[in-house]
Design goal:
With 482 residues, the chain is mostly beta strands. It is built from four helices and 37 strands.
């Protein structure tokens, strides 16, 4: 592991440690100071005002605990931190950065939003230990190491659009910490959280600090034309103190190519992470419908699907924020089961439609078996999925990649939002279908076949009440040509 050498030499203790006034002045009594030779995540030197926390244990008791030392431009100092006067008594020292006033961390959470330099730097946890130290006017060498994982993202943008936002998905933000052994362990009970990296002074370069863990990272780049460019990487063990470099290229046809590998820039080489092949959108094109662009995906079996959920609002319809409305079209719900009208959230999740709204007419006893595969609210040359379409999609599930599906909640006929959650995120998703096995029209209990998919790799077809509000994706007609 790449290490930082910091030198301790004598100064004075703040609260919790001996001060000059209550100590006997001796030949070795002097202030403790730390002279760093290399710095944290963003530079080669600490900045004036930076603080570390120091704990000294001697004879099994704390001589000082979590005492802050401030960088004055040359060394870390505290006006009240002095060595004890028994020059033969040994002690153990533990230090960490960044300083936390509430105490040396037993648990540490990286910032989800690291776009500001201060939040990025506050996520870089370093620790150092020194054992069997005796008071001396000479320096005490300490080795500081990075405890977390660093991701460097270099984006080459060859498109005509500007980059609006970069998001790194698929990791948990919290870890348990043992500073004495300089070890961290991801908190498996914490939720997966989107990380928004720091944009460095180098054009197109972003950096993020993550908790070491096994994760299938997903890079999402949003551009000014409203498109989201997504690449998913295989699940990999991200190591403590390791740095990984992601190189992404957005082509002039709005396609993204990305790779990830290890690099040594003050951190340990993390090795390579392989991308998920045939994810999005190397083989994707764009469909513009009603002024909105959708990614589409041609699969190996010859079928072409929308690769994101529909956001079309039919003429004469309004989108409802109340699932109790019988309006037929609703805003997507959040994980707290409330409606969200946020533009970016709608772009990710799509809108929710009942069957009647999707097919463009009421479902009645006369037509309930005759709406299979109609165009409905889909664009010209496309149709609403049938059971046969769902079965063909299930057959090529292994090639879809984890970001093809959108995990979202639904609107229940009882008038509320529902959804299956895992670690604070939706763990299941659905797609509307126009096929039914019902032979009798029962308006209060008419089920149609929908696609269910889950993060546990479950993909199958289930019966759901047609009054439910579900995401919609359209399928290209086989006879419409390319």
């Amino acid at each position: 592991m790449k290490q930082f050498f910091l030198i301790l030499s004598g100064l004075a203790l703040l609260t919790g440690c001996s001060s000059k006034n209550d100590s006997v002045e001796g030949p070795v009594q002097s202030r403790i100071r730390i002279a760093p030779s290399i710095s944290r995540v963003t530079g080669l030197n600490f900045d004036t005002g930076d603080r570390i926390g120091l704990t000294i244990v001697k004879s099994g008791a704390n001589y000082c605990e979590n005492t802050p030392l401030r960088f004055d431009g040359t060394v870390f100092v505290s006006d009240d931190l002095f060595w004890y006067d028994d020059s033969s008594e040994k002690s153990n020292l533990t230090a960490y950065y960044p300083y936390l006033a509430e105490g040396a961390p037993a648990s540490f959470t990286v910032r989800a939003d690291q776009k500001l330099a201060a939040d990025h730097e506050a996520s870089d946890l370093l620790a150092a230990t020194a054992t069997d130290v005796v008071p001396s006017q000479t320096a005490v060498n300490m080795v500081f190491t990075h405890l977390l994982t660093k991701i460097v993202i270099d984006i080459t943008n060859n498109s005509a659009n500007t980059i609006q936002e970069v998001t790194l998905k698929g990791s948990r933000c919290t870890a348990t910490v043992d500073l004495s052994t300089k070890s961290v362990q991801v908190d498996a009970s914490s939720a997966e959280t989107d990380i928004y990296p720091f944009s460095t002074v180098t054009a197109g370069r972003y950096e993020a600090i993550l908790v070491p863990q096994r994760a299938a990272l997903e890079l999402e780049i949003q551009t000014s034309d409203g498109n989201r460019h997504i690449k998913t990487f295989q699940a990999t063990d991200l190591q403590s103190g390791a740095e990984y470099a992601i190189e992404a290229v957005i082509s002039n046809t709005n396609k993204i190519h990305a790779s990830i590998s290890g690099a040594v820039k003050g951190w340990e080489d993390g090795g390579a992470i392989a991308p998920v092949e045939d994810d999005l959108p190397e083989d994707s094109d764009l469909l513009e419908y009603a002024g909105v662009k959708y990614r589409i995906r041609q699969l190996s079996n010859g079928t072409t699907w929308m690769a994101e959920n529909l956001r079309y609002i039919p003429e004469g319809k309004r989108v409802s924020s109340s699932p109790s409305d019988e309006n037929g079209i609703w805003y997507p719900c959040t994980t707290s089961f409330t409606a969200s009208s946020d533009t970016e959230y709608i772009q990710r999740q799509g809108l929710l439609y009942d069957l009647a709204t999707a097919v463009g007419e009421p479902v009645t006893a006369d037509n309930f078996r005759n709406i299979e595969g109609v165009q409905g609210i889909c664009p010209e040359g496309w149709h609403l999925p049938t059971r046969a379409d769902l079965e063909s999609l299930i057959a090529v599930n292994s090639e879809l990649g984890s970001s093809f599906f959108t995990y979202a909640g639904t609107r229940d006929p009882s008038g509320k939002y529902i959804g299956s959650l895992m670690s604070g995120n939706f763990s299941k998703g659905y797609l509307l279908c126009t096929s039914t096995e019902s032979s009798v029209y029962t308006p209060e209990d008419l089920n149609y076949q929908y696609l269910l998919f889950s993060k546990s790799n479950q993909v199958n077809i289930i019966d759901i009440d047609c009054r439910s509000g579900m995401p919609v994706r359209c399928v290209k007609n086989a006879t419409s040509g390319e």
